[in-house]
Amino acid sequence: MASARHILVELPYTVSSMKNNHLLGDGLGLVVLGSMFPGPGERWRRIGDRLMVAQLRRHMRPDGSMIEDSLSYHRFVLEMLCVRQLIGDAPCEISEALEKAGLHLVKLGVLDGPVPQFGDWDEGRVLADSSNAGSTVGSTFAALALSGYGIPARHFDEHDELAWYVTGVGEKVVPRSTETSVRAGDFVRIDCGQRRVWIKAGSGPSHQHADVTSVWIRDGTNWVTRDPGTGTYNGPLHIRNGFRTSAAHPVWVPAGRDQLEPHRAFRWLRSITPSSSRVQQLGDATALLAVHDAFADVHGRVARLVLLHSEGVTVVDAVELPGGTWTMTLPLGDEVGAEEFFGLEDVQQFHGEDAPWSGWHSRTYGAWEASTWLVAADPLDGQKKWGYGVPLEVDVEFGWKQTSVEVRLALGAERVQITAVGVCE
Description:
Layout: H1 2-17, H2 21-34, H3 40-59, H4 71-87, H5 92-108, H6 137-146, H7 154-158, H8 160-165, E1 181-184, E2 187-192, E3 195-200, E4 215-219, E5 222-225, H9 237-244, E6 252-254, E7 262-263, E8 267-268, E9 274-276, E10 280-282, E11 285-292, H10 296-299, E12 302-309, E13 312-319, E14 326-331, E15 341-342, E16 347-351, E17 353-354, E18 357-358, E19 360-361, E20 369-370, E21 372-378, E22 384-389, E23 395-400, E24 404-411, E25 414-421
Antiparallel strand pairs: 1-2, 2-3, 3-4, 4-5, 6-14, 7-8, 9-11, 10-11, 11-12, 12-13, 13-22, 14-21, 15-22, 16-21, 17-18, 19-20, 23-24, 24-25
Helix pairs in contact: 1-2, 2-3, 2-4, 4-5, 4-6, 5-6
C-alpha cells in the first residue's frame, strides 16, 4: 500500500518528465498493486490502466515499433504489456499494442537469429528468465502466445518466458515473411541467401545512439559488421559516449563531429532528420537509399545507397557539399578481417585502445572486451564505393533536389531510379 501511495504522490513529476517506459511502469505498478487490495485497489487499477493507455498512444507507432530507439527497451516495454495481459481484463489498447510490438520483433528478424543490439542495452527485464540475457526470442514468443498465436510445443522447453507464464496457445499463425526485404520501424532488413543486412533508416527520440544509416551485416551465423553495444550509463563518460556516438558506428561523419553530439550521460545536443526510399530490385540486387541532414549546416545531406546481391554487399556513399576529411568506423564481428572488405584504402585498425578510446565490444551491460574496429578516412569529394565480398559493377548517379534525393542506377542494360523524400536542402 505504501508503494501504491508513493507512485501516486510522484505522478505529477512522472507525467511531466518521464513520458516513456517509466510512465508505463508506474501505470503497471498501480494495476499490479490494485489487484492485491480490495477497496482502494480498484481506484489504483483504473488510474494505472488510464496511464498506460495514454502513454501507449504516444509510445507506440502504428507498425509496432516504439519511440524508444532501443532493442532492450522494446523488450522491456513488451514484457510490461505481457504482465498486464496476464493480470486479466486488459484494455483493448494494451492488448493491441502487445500484439503489434511482438510482430515488430518478428519483422526485425529475432526468430531467425541474432539481430543488431541497437540503442541503449541495459538488459532491463520484467519477466523472470534464466537463459541468455541478450536474447529477445522468449519474450517475443510470450507476447505472441498471449495474443492468440499458436507456438510449437518445443519452444516451451527452450524459453522460460513461455514455460513459466503462458498456459495455453491460440490458433493464429505467426507470420513469417518470405520477402527479400522487410521494413521494421526504423530498420529495413534485406535478405539474400545466407546473408542478412539491416540498414538503420530512421531514429527515435529516446535511448537512441548516433547511428542513422548504419549498415549491419550478418553472413550466416557470423557478424561481419555489428553494433558495438552500450557498455555503461553512469560509469566513465568517455566509455558511455565511446559506445553511443557515431564514432562507434558504421556511418560517415566530418572529422571531429557527431550526428547528434552527446551531452552528459543520456542527452544529445542536436537532432537529425532521416529519410529512406522504397526497396527496389536491380538484377539480383536489392537496393535501398537512406539519407539524413545531420550536417546540413556545412555539408548539406548525406546519402547512402546499399545493395545486397548474391556475391556481397556494395555500399555507395555521397555528400551533397563535400569538404574536409570524413571518417567511418566499422566494428567487426569476431570471425571477419579487414581483407574481406573492398574500397576502403586509408584504413586503421584498432583493438582495445584507450587513447584514443577505440576497438571495444559490449556483449552485456557493464562489461566490454577488446574487439577490432576499422576506421576509414576519406574526403568524400565524390562517390565512395565500398563493401563486403565481391563489388557490384553498378553505375550510380546522385541527384540532389530541394525536397528529395534521387539516385539513378544502371547495371548492364537495366536501369532504375530510387528516391528518398522529406529531407530538405
